[in-house]
Amino acid sequence: MRILHVAAEIFPLVKTGGLADIVAALPGAQARHGHDTRVLLPGFRGIMAGVPELVPVAQIGPVFGAAAVRLLAGRLSESGLMVYVIDAPFLYDRDGNPYVGPDRRDWSDNHRRFALLGWAAAHLAFGELDPDWLPDIVHAHDWHAGLAPVYIRQNPSLKTRAVFTIHNLAFRGIFPLECYGETGLPAELLTPSGIEFYGSFSFMKAGLVYSDKITTVSPAYSREIQTPEFGWGLDGLLRERSSDLSGILNGVDYSVWTPQDPKIAHAYTAQNPSGKKLCKRMLQKEFGLLRDDESPLFAVVSRLTEQKGMDILLDALSDLLDSGGQLVVLGTGKAEFETRFSQAARAYPGRIAVHIGHNEDLSHRIMAGADALLVPSRFEPCGLTQLYALRYGALPIVHRTGGLSDTVVDATPDTIASGRATGFVFDRPDSRTLGARVREACTLYHNKECWRKIRRHGMLQDFSWNDSAAHYEALYRSLL
Ligand code: ADP
Q1: Which of 84, 168, 220, 333 has the most CB atoms in a 10 Å sphere around its CB?
Q2: What is the percentage of the chain residues whose pLDDT exceeds 70?
Q3: Does residue 161 sit in the same domain as residue 234?
């Protein structure tokens, strides 16, 4: 099959979250299964600079307010994955991240920047940009690519089918109606059964209405988003389309996320985890924490937001400290949470340490050095960090929601005895419940034999892409 993925991020060139890891890994897994898979990306700075030898494929000319627009193609240096890049300096050559400027506010022309992404995907499918390569499937990821299925539908004779994946329904790509004219789409689509969304219009909704199949990134989240509590006003639509909606769990690229990776101080395995002790000591040293093997080291690698439950954790710090734990935080996000974590680090030197920012290498060292990873998300479509933590032998402590509940087995007397436990799962996203689980984890940490047993079982879990890629393949086949 010829598969075109359409996305705004790809690891390692542009990454703000898990989407980037998935867009880098899934197409590679599909290529290994024998498919001709390519990725279409906006020409952000990191992408223009990071893909070697980009060659022009098509001159697109003035569109979406940009005078000079070209389609380029090249291959990613490590994976060899073929990518198309939309070179539109006026829209994409900017500081900041893909969605917000250095002032952390959304770019005011995001509707044009991401309409161009969907439009280019459709015109590739029409054969107007690269006549030598027509995709059978256009697989659009998150709201950024939400208009791709709509533009595709404008050509009813087209055989290409559109799949849309929700990575996080909370980000719906909502814009004022006045902006709609600039998408070039017909006015008739701007109705409540089409793209209109409560007096605005939504790229996410567009993807949900006009794609042939909808997926999301875990089975539990596919059920949750059909309820008002997690549906962000789109649950009715998702219930209507439930026969086309499925949850396919994200995978992990174990060639990147492995306790033998070159970014960590000492390699180790599930069978021989002694290197992990050294990684912990190195991490304690790096962060100025007390060098104490007996103190369980908790970690956070996360966007610092309400979704991720960072306020819940901040309110549970006393439980962690009272029960002898240490904490390392790597993250960036809401200013208030950055400040509160930094204050906690100043108040408890040697016990709490914080690095505000995005740092890929450090995230690996933290996974390797930590005894446990805290993921108290209020909702979590899939979550990748708990999967990475499992492989590195850091026991995940997670809220029972979305992909977290699909991937971590709670340590209870029963699951510990039967050898199935892989971490801790708590039922309510509040600081009392989290604090209680953290205390329990600290107690269990001192039962060395039991802790090692759970850790070993977690490290042996297999969340590689093979299964997930096969599920996507079956889904595509059902459409062709
Ligand atoms: P989300 O995409 O909602 O942020 P995921 O758990 O799916 O959450 O993916 C988060 C990804 O971003 C993981 O690869 C994680 O390691 C990474 N990450 C998050 N914050 C940071 C950070 N401050 N520095 C480095 N990597 C980070």
Answers
A1: 84
A2: 100
A3: yes
